[in-house]
Amino acid sequence: MAHLITSHKGEPHVSSANFARYHAGTLGPGKYLLPVGKRMACTMQDSNTLRILSGAAVCTGYEWEVEGDFEEVTIENGVPGYKRIDLLTAHIETDPVERIAWKVYRGEETTGTPVVPGYIDGDLQEGDIVAEHAVCSVLIDGINPQEPKMLLQESHTIEGLYADLSKQINDVRDSLSQTKAYTFSEFRSLGLNTPGSSSYGRVLDCSIYDRARYDGYFTAFGSQGNSWAGFLRAGAASVTWTLTARAPGAEWAPRFWWWTNFPWNKPAAMNGWGRFMRLDTDPSDTANEGYFLAISTNGMWWGYRTNGTNDITWAKA
């Protein structure tokens, strides 16, 4: 039967399990420290007293907290010449009665490397009636306890998640706004190593982030029709080139035009500066039918021209 939990019925009808399921559904089914109070900060007050400051947490949907300013538990004495790790947990039971209590697991003494003792992990949303929430561990070196190591995982608030997401969006926007325009360069004027044995051709700067040092990705088109992909890492002396396509014959090569001598229509949104390239040029094809690439400081467009037509059909890349 459907149960309207958020309602007034004139009699008790809302259980702790109802709220536990709500918490598990909103915060997650795990075990979390809530960002309130003193966040259950733990300190050793002396050789045997571990203090837990105020705070709240959720263990598989069940909320619990340290009431008042603090609570204290006892840590047993260490043994000279030995080390061990003790573990503090919040022990929670839901049957036969719902209750919580501190439980300290004493680790095993060793002259080597001590390990954290096991505990009852449990999941109260999956039918377990006992679950423990690990709070902190304490290394006892001889008779001297060290500072506790916090084990609680702090949850995020909606406000915090929004702030993190906004920062990531702004970082991406800033990165994109710093990307320089696509440009063509001649092999010999680039000032960098050229791919293969080609000494003539064009290099397309695909994503230059720092014009002064040419840090980014490149595509190169050789005079004999071969093409390469390259990457120049900041501080490196040369571009790492990889051959991506080999022309079927030495007579094949892409053609290039400047803004002023391109004989066909340009993309309407393209500003007054840029370069044009035909991607599948055959010198014997005087009709210049095929695919084109237009690159300017405000974007990149793909185009296609059919033999017998005067105009190129452009689409933003």
Please give a structural write-up.
This protein is mainly beta and 317 residues long. It contains 3 helices and 19 strands. The protein folds into 2 domains: 135 residues, Triple-stranded beta-helix (Sandwich); 134 residues, no CATH class. The strands form 4 sheets. Strands 5, 6, 7, 8 and 9 form a 5-stranded antiparallel beta sheet that branches. It has a 5-stranded antiparallel beta sheet with strand order 10-11-12-13-14. A hairpin with a 2-residue loop joins strand 3 and strand 4. The protein is elongated, with a radius of gyration of 34 Å.
The CATH topology of the largest domain, please?
Triple-stranded beta-helix
- Report the order of strands and helices: HEEEEEEEEEHEHEEEEEEEEE
Low-confidence stretches: 207-213, 248-253
Oligomer: single chain
Distance between the termini: 55 Å
Q: C-alpha Rg, in Å?
A: 34 Å
Question: With helices defined by DSSP (H or I, 4 residues minimum), what is the helix count?
Answer: 3
What is the residue-mean pLDDT, rounded to a whole number? Answer: 81
For the sheet with most strands, the description reads: 5 strands, antiparallel
Beta-strand proportion: 35-45%
Query: How many domains?
Result: 2
Which CATH-level-2 architecture of the largest domain?
Sandwich
Give the number of DSSP strands. 19
CATH class placement of the largest domain = Mainly Beta
